[in-house]
Amino acid sequence: QKEVEQNSGPLSVPEGAIASLNCTYSDRVSQSFFWYRQYSGKSPELIMSIYSNGDKEDGRFTAQLNKASQYVSLLIRDSQPSDSATYLCAVNGKYGGSQGNLIFGKGTKLSVKP
Amino acid sequence: ETGVTQSPTHLIKTRGQQVTLRCSSQSGHNTVSWYQQALGQGPQFIFQYYREEENGRGNFPPRFSGLQFPNYSSELNVNALELDDSALYLCASSWRTSVTDTQYFGPGTRLTVL
């Protein structure tokens, strides 16, 4: 059973700090990795995708992938109260390397305090 | 906004009834995936449709069925509703390529089974 694990939190950081969200996955052949943000009562919104080892930056967000350690992380710099949400880590699943279902972790709830 | 639409927004049914949920994919996308998200959990993959055929299925019973139409829109049908079917049902659309498989979610349908 392929799994994605996240710390459920809540993770609380002060405004302006760096929030660090972590995720591990069980299937070594996974090739696509995603971070989604989900506000309470809303649907998941894509923040970042990453496919290669290393860092990928987009504005205040940096995704980091280490396939050898089966580890994905998301850093949020200069955290804002509007970043308060649940962050879902997702990994491509069973049906092929580039196209298939996503396997999600349970999500980490982030709270940014003003 | 992702361009993925779902209807209805909310639905209340009683145990044993049948329900149909609808999804219109983002323009240019040819693949639709359905997920079930229970409260406090990550989305769980139900099935995926590509070129009007089921292209993978998660661990859901046969009373969960679906369709994809020539315009790539899709339906999710659930028969003999059970209390545990109460959840947020998410549709995600994507463009099937050999490289990327980014899925974009619609706003979801909140189903309550009484």
Instruction: Output the radius of gyration of chain B.
Output: 13 Å
Radius of gyration of chain A: 14 Å
Q: Work out the helix count of chain A.
A: 0
Helix share bin of chain A? under 10%
Q: From N to C, what is the helix and strand string of chain A?
A: EEEEEEEEEEE
Report mean pLDDT of chain A, rounded to a whole number.
91
- Mean pLDDT reading of chain B: 92
Question: Which chain pair shows the most residues in contact?
Answer: A-B, 27 and 32 residues
Label the structural class of chain B: mainly beta
How many β strands of chain A by DSSP? 11
- Give the proportion of residues in helices of chain B: under 10%
How would you explain this protein's 3D organization?
The complex is a heterodimer of chains A (114) and B (114). By secondary structure, chain A is mostly beta strands. Chain A has no helices and eleven strands. In chain A, strands 2, 4, 5, 9, 10 and 11 form a six-stranded mixed beta sheet that branches. Chain A has a five-stranded antiparallel beta sheet with strand order 1-3-8-7-6, with no helix packed on it. In chain A, 35% of the residues are buried. Chain B has 114 residues and is mainly beta. In chain B, strands 2, 4, 5, 6, 9, 10 and 11 form a seven-stranded mixed beta sheet that branches. Chain B has a four-stranded antiparallel beta sheet with strand order 1-3-8-7, with no helix packed on it. The mean pLDDT of chain B is 92. The interface between A and B is medium-sized, with 27 and 32 residues.
How are the secondary structure elements laid out?
The complex is a heterodimer of chains A (114) and B (114).
Chain A: E1 4-6, E2 11-14, E3 19-25, E4 33-38, E5 45-50, E6 54-58, E7 61-66, E8 71-76, E9 85-92, E10 102-104, E11 108-113
Parallel strand pairs in A: 2-11
Antiparallel strand pairs in A: 1-3, 3-8, 4-5, 4-9, 6-7, 7-8, 9-10, 9-11
Chain B: E1 5-7, E2 10-13, E3 19-24, E4 31-37, E5 44-50, E6 53-57, E7 64-68, E8 74-78, E9 87-94, E10 104-105, E11 109-113
Parallel strand pairs in B: 2-11
Antiparallel strand pairs in B: 1-3, 3-8, 4-5, 4-9, 5-6, 7-8, 9-10, 9-11
